[in-house]
């Protein structure tokens, strides 16, 4: 059973309170009355003034015409006579409610001191408010909880006056939805807490990602849309969506690019056969391959051309693996882990070298290399580490926060290799960790009992997503944010001549 002892759920009427109890809510439910006077009195009383976490749950009137009876509104802002109160934890509660199968909207809720109809009601919705009630702002003003949430189920829709015969039916629809809301409120209460947030530094964009995004942006500016990009320019859905909005067209293969058009190769690099295909289609190529990936391509050619079998330690199917091994496909062999390293067969055990995907975890690779060295004593290593500075720094920074955290949140997309390695590293250190694309992916259950949370972002994840995570954690209670920087990065890569300013 989750600890919801600090949560008080406020329902305006007995019917609403009963619906929540019928939904199995474990937290204390208080019937606080209808309207500003009643809730101000309840909010100033001992129960609510001493409650660290308060949820106001009940029915409301829709202001947005898209909302239907039974739709759930989770307030990210409550507007009342004393001003606006942000509720940044709303997205977490909304996600929990969506998982329960409810139709959920996140946005402002306005509190009014009277029932509003007609033109006055339409006016309340002009600034994007989704719903109107008569309690939330007044109660939060009076109770002043450390963390608050407002969940309202739509009973009457915008534009349809109250107190028609159909009002009763719409109210009952809303009450039935309120029953289904109840378990999520307990989940929110169990997660609400004071926290310390340890921010790993360095985190977020590396020099190779900055350069790749810059290349697409400059290509769009200088050549105009559309600019084709083969594969995701970097492995992050937010970056890809943003560039798509600005005119980039992402394709999987070059046959999707019109002959003669401009195409950018992603930061992960391409095999020579892709370059040949581009030349055959007379494409205007702009290469955004990270220079540190290009370095590994050069090493493959050098080792393979000297007669070695090159063992590439990497992940099968990853674009960097495909591109790098594509340099000398007949001379390279992929090894993913120590089991592969024990089994790998080579033409001549005295002519073997190894290279590494740039985004792997150094400690894992070390174990694989140990096995290879045992099997091939003359094994040749790359001249300098293939695992890039950004990967190494982010792993060390993650370690510095994970060891002191009960939970690590790693911001990055599911196909981001370096982000996945950060999660694995935290798990190896014994700290539960999750890969999230953004704050909306955080599950309330992860936060239960986690009073120190480590936060980082993979090399392809935008920095503002970290702010979003900190913000939603702030919505669950007071937080102390601690920056823990292990080093400062000042690596910059020059742009290719194709997009340099004339
Ligand atoms: S993670 Fe490393 S190799 Fe990959 S783009 Fe960034 S700097 Fe380049």
Order of the strands making up the biggest sheet: 3-7-6-4-8
- The mean pLDDT is 95
Major sheet, described briefly? 5 strands, mixed, barrel
In the CATH hierarchy, the architecture of the largest domain is 3-Layer(aba) Sandwich
Relative helix content: 25-40%
Compute the number of strand runs.
20
User: Span from first to last CA?
Assistant: 66 Å
Approximately what portion of the residues adopt beta-strand conformation?
A: 15-25%
CATH fold topology of the largest domain: Rossmann fold
Shape: elongated
Task: Outline the structure in words.
The chain has 502 residues and is of the alpha/beta class. The strands form four sheets. It has a five-stranded mixed barrel, surrounded by four helices. Helix 2 runs parallel beside helix 6, helix 11 runs parallel beside helix 12 and helix 15 packs parallel to helix 16. Bound molecules: iron/sulfur cluster.
Brief descriptors of the model:
alpha/beta; 502 residues; binds iron/sulfur cluster; Cobalt-precorrin-4 Transmethylase, domain 1; Rossmann fold; five-stranded parallel beta sheet
Write the layout of secondary structure elements.
Layout: E1 7-11, H1 14-22, E2 28-31, H2 36-44, H3 46-49, E3 53-62, E4 72-80, E5 83-86, H4 90-99, E6 104-111, H5 118-124, E7 131-133, H6 136-143, E8 147-156, H7 166-191, E9 195-201, H8 207-223, E10 227-230, H9 237-245, E11 248-251, E12 262-265, H10 272-280, E13 284-287, H11 291-305, E14 309-313, H12 319-325, E15 332-335, H13 338-343, E16 352-356, H14 362-375, H15 389-402, E17 407-411, H16 417-428, E18 433-436, H17 444-447, E19 452-457, H18 464-474, E20 479-485
Parallel strand pairs: 1-2, 1-3, 3-8, 4-6, 6-7, 9-19, 9-20, 10-11, 10-12, 12-13, 14-15, 14-16, 17-18, 17-19
Antiparallel strand pairs: 3-7, 4-5, 4-8
Helix pairs in contact: 1-7, 2-6, 4-7, 11-12, 15-16
Residues 206-209, 267, 290, 292-293, 358-359, 388, 390-391, 418, 459 line the site of iron/sulfur cluster (SF4).
